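User: My collaborator sent over this chain with a note saying "see what the structure looks like." That's all I know about it. Can you take a look?
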Amino acid sequence: MPEVIRARALVHGRVQGVGFRYATLSRARMLGVVGWVRNLPSGEVEVEAQGSPGGVEKLIDWLRVGPRSAIVVDVRVAPATVDPDADAFMIR
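Assistant: Without extra context I'll predict from the sequence alone. Here is the result:
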């Protein structure tokens, strides 16, 4: 059985109102990563990503840059508990 990990990321910068969530959804699906992305009232974007270590790491690397219109200042990443029922990536 392949290894599955889950990580939580908080993305800081100009990341709301620039298509960040939709671009994250697209990138996660391309990488075969499940989980979710949402805007926070603080102006940050929160992401939970689950999948192969390589897929999750590639998504986190992408979050550090984001879509062209975003200005990412910082990404804080922490491990999260794997959700055995997660089967898709979605916008919350």
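A starting point for your reply to your collaborator: The radius of gyration is 12 Å.
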